[in-house]
Amino acid sequence: MVDRVMRITQNPKQIRNICTSAHIHHGKTAFTDNLLAAAGMMSAKAAGDLEQGMATWQHADEQERLMTVDAANVSMVHEFNEQEFLINLIDTPGHVDFGGNVTRAMRAVDGTVVLICAVEGIMPQTETVVRQALRERVKPVLFINKVDRLVKELKLSPEKIAERVMNLVVLFNNLIGRIAEQEYKEKWKVNVQDGSVAFGSARENWALSFPYMHKKNVKFADILRIYELEEQERKDWVWKNAPLNEVILDMVIKHLPDPVDAQKYRIPKIWHGEKDSEFGKDVLTCNPNGKLAFVITRIVIDPRSGKDISAGRLFSGTIRSGMEVYLNNAKQRQRIQNVYIYNGIKPEIIESLPAGNVLAISGVLGFAGETITLEPEQMFEELKHIFEPVITKAIEPKKSADLPKLIEVLRKVSREDPSVKIEINEETGQNLLHGMGELHLEIIENRIITEKGVEVKTSPPIVVYREAITKKSPVTEGKSPNKHNKLQFMVEPLEPQIVNGIKEGRIRQGRFKKKDEELIAFLRDECDWDAKTAGMAKAIFNGNLFMDQTRGIVYINEIMELVLDMFEDVMKQGPLSREPCINLKVSLIDCTLHEDAIHRGPAQMYPAVREGIRGAMMQAGPVMYEPLQIMRIEAPTEYTGGISKLVSSKRGQLLDMTQEEDQVVVVAKLPVAELLGWSSDLRSATEGRGNSSLMDQMFERLPIELQEKVRNQIIQRKGLTAGELGA
């Protein structure tokens, strides 16, 4: 089998790099299991069996909770039109807390099979994963899953099933049209007639598309009849007339791009270097003989050796075992020990692999998002999740002697799951875990205890707030300790158009070593900025913009990286309570610099920049912002009153309320600080019959009556003194 896979890897036109994506419990992992079984890579009997566990579940907590937590790489071979194709598939989680896995998977793939439940339809996380895909220019196809429920539970006629399928396709295409870039709004809509839509039941291992129905002379009415058959008869009919693997993988090969075609339009979106350079041409053309470009998208710590296995996508060049490579983010050289390709779920050691493949390497120590090349090159765009961590826990070992071990474990955790932000303070021993939600942190904590072998204790969940300003500041000066350097800053609220542009991914974040034409075009067209002012943008960090408005300063280019270093540092820790800053435009207005470079090094520039920016913020009406989430809440209609009371008791705001048959659907905006313990509160209010899902996340100004109270709580928790705050 490995020989067969290796043969196909040499021809990128016969490779499809794809992932599954869906709302939680819409059937992705059963779907992947049955594809693997059909390819002969696992037992058909065990495929999709919740009790036995899915093939892609590699942790005990996934089996316990019956849900995917970690993305998993699998590969299989499929024959289409008398040609063999290699399908590299990443199975991704559906729960919003683990959406960082989806973001990282999207960087490695060129297409995604979006699954939606035929009964539940398009849910909030469906929209989120589609948004994640389109942001990376990953093309979708659609599989409408759990059609068996329409037959067995809802008892719909063939005509009603067909009507339901068509309605879901319309809704899905409306979603594409609403959030895709202009060029892809129509191009990437799915079509029932051409076979970019399939429907079926992953659990029961069948699928159909209109072209396949025509080929096999199968009609909607046959779907009803198969459920009148005995189990074995039904399985035999399905295997002959509607095999899941054949229908789905035919759709994937026909409608999703190969790496060569995909990289032509994906690279300009995810890599912002010179397209006409040798490196740029190599990554655009997926050149196997070109310069090496490998991006790490997932890290697994081998439980036996404790070493990193780094999975990712090879965009150009050929990667070999023993090869010395350069990690552009870490800025260091390391040596690859082994190269792996996936044979089913199992990684197999091989000597080398060419561009276009999803693979794994060992021997290097990096992070997800790292760009690996032979020599220093422009890095690929930073991997950024659609939602930010809003929940924090302090973590410490139960035994003080275990502190060094815990610190090492936390560093490993941050590599395995970069959506967990970890702050390590080796001096005080206070370490913080920042996660996407309570479940996310609960899973991390459990794995530290059960898999890493460190007994820990954690604080109750802590909400992460933001610091912002309400008006433009006067020009404020920061001086270096030697008094030889003076920098003048001004801060003001960032325009809403720019805030939205960053959130929607239309404006990339990072430092701009030269004028960024895409950003300039956005600022000119959307914000009415002139080209000269737009060209002053030097960096966007965590949603904050830095502008260099100085003129004719001799040494400005020599100190700019130091200025940006401290700009980022202040944006991480604002003046009010050392919480991250949000929606700020920081401008360097003027500066006086010592002519001798030794007198304007980091020790001098960092304090001057910090003093200047924080001082300006303190004169710009600084305020605290709190995180809020928009939740979709569903329950039987008799619990409408209970849900309304629950939302009101949590400082929530009802945005919408609709009735769907015997269910009420409530959309509400709720402060995250009031959502701790939300799941149990909702169960109580609905007698266990309600559920909720995250639709969106934002930060808004904390009510005025809570400003000082919350700030003081944060200051006290962090042990900050008056001298450590302000400028």
Describe the structure.
- The protein has 727 residues and is α+β, with helices and mostly antiparallel strands.
- It has 5 domains: 2-257, Rossmann fold, CATH 3.40.50.300; 261-373, Elongation Factor Tu (Ef-tu), domain 3 (Beta Barrel); 391-464, Alpha-Beta Plaits; 467-621, Ribosomal Protein S5, domain 2 (2-Layer Sandwich), CATH 3.30.230; 624-706, Alpha-Beta Plaits, CATH 3.30.70.240.
- It is built from 23 helices and 33 strands.
- The strands form 6 sheets. It has an 8-stranded antiparallel β-sheet. The protein has a 7-stranded mixed β-sheet with strand order 2-3-1-4-5-6-7, sandwiched between helices. Strands 24-25-29-28-27-26 form a 6-stranded mixed β-sheet.
- Helix 7 packs across helix 9 and helix 19 (556-572) packs across helix 20.
- The model is unreliable at 41-55 (pLDDT under 50).
Tell me the layout of helices and strands:
Layout: H1 2-9, E1 15-22, H2 28-38, H3 60-65, E2 72-80, E3 83-91, H4 99-108, E4 111-117, H5 124-135, E5 139-145, H6 147-152, H7 158-179, E6 197-201, E7 206-208, H8 210-216, H9 220-226, H10 231-241, H11 244-255, H12 259-270, H13 278-285, E8 293-301, E9 308-316, E10 318-320, E11 324-327, E12 332-335, E13 338-343, E14 346-350, E15 352-354, E16 358-362, E17 371-373, E18 391-397, H14 403-416, E19 421-424, E20 431-435, H15 438-450, E21 456-458, E22 462-463, E23 466-468, E24 476-479, E25 486-493, H16 496-503, E26 510-511, H17 517-527, H18 531-534, E27 537-541, E28 544-548, H19 556-572, E29 584-592, H20 602-618, E30 623-636, H21 640-649, E31 653-660, E32 663-671, H22 678-686, E33 691-701, H23 704-718
Parallel strand pairs: 1-3, 1-4, 4-5, 5-6, 28-29
Antiparallel strand pairs: 2-3, 6-7, 8-9, 8-17, 9-16, 10-15, 11-12, 11-17, 13-14, 13-16, 18-20, 18-21, 18-22, 19-20, 23-30, 24-25, 25-29, 26-27, 27-28, 30-32, 30-33, 31-32
Helix pairs in contact: 7-9, 19-20
